[in-house]
Amino acid sequence: MEPLSIPDGADWVVVTGAPLPWADAVEWAGGPGCGAVVTFSGTVRDHSEGRPGVVSLEYEAFEDAAERRLAEVAAAARRQWPSVERVALLHRVGLLEVGESSVLVVVSSPHRDEAFESARFCIDTLKRTVPVWKKETWQDGSDWSACAHAIEPVVPPTGGGGPRR
């Protein structure tokens, strides 16, 4: 599988079967005006509620729809925190083993408050709004995630977002 192409623009949104390029995303997000680069990596863990011994997760997505929704999440973050410089929202599909990164959020801005707040908004909103599903395999079986929910629309955050020094 080919490595992901680094974008020319200020947003990097992709759904891929390739390992997520953490170091490339952090380097891409930085810049001379960025005093903060915040990174969140969601990784496959060895358990789930009521399911000890998880050995793998398998993610499925409507890739085009998921990428469009990731772009909506990035746009909503930018509207709330206009000082955000770059946003990377990368999600993996396919079979992942314990320890592998399934989702990566990287946000840069001149100040840490905006970077932290917008990164938190991005991962929380991504989890509720992007059409990605996961199947868990554990020591006694496999099934779709017990925490599945309906896909919600992207809703802009309320409050906050003003410049901080």
Describe the structure.
- The chain has 165 residues and is an alpha+beta fold.
- The chain has a single domain, classed as Molybdopterin biosynthesis MoaE subunit (Aldehyde Oxidoreductase, domain 3).
- The protein is built from 3 helices and 10 strands.
- It has helices at 22-29, 63-80, 112-129, and strands at 11-16, 36-43, 47-48, 51-52, 56-61, 86-92, 94-97, 101-109, 132-138, 141-144.
- The strands form 3 sheets. The protein has a 4-stranded mixed beta sheet, with helices on both faces. Strands 7-5-9-10 form a 4-stranded antiparallel beta sheet.
- Strand 9 and strand 10 (141-144) form a beta hairpin.
- It is globular.
- The model has no long low-confidence stretch (mean pLDDT 91).
Strand content: 25-35%
**Helix/strand order, N-terminal first:** EHEEEEHEEEHEE
List the total number of helices. 3
Instruction: Sketch the major β-sheet.
Output: 4 strands, mixed
Helix content: 25-40%
Estimated structural class: alpha+beta
CATH superfamily: Molybdopterin biosynthesis MoaE subunit
| Coarse shape | globular
Backbone CA Rg: 16 Å
> Could you give the count of β-strands?
10
**pLDDT < 50 runs, ≥5 residues:** none
How many domains in all? 1
Which fold name corresponds to the CATH topology? Answer: Aldehyde Oxidoreductase, domain 3
Strand order of the largest sheet: 1-6-8-2
Q: Class, according to the CATH hierarchy?
A: Alpha Beta
Give the averaged pLDDT, no decimals: 91
Compute the separation of the termini in Å.
Answer: 42 Å
CATH architecture: Alpha-Beta Complex
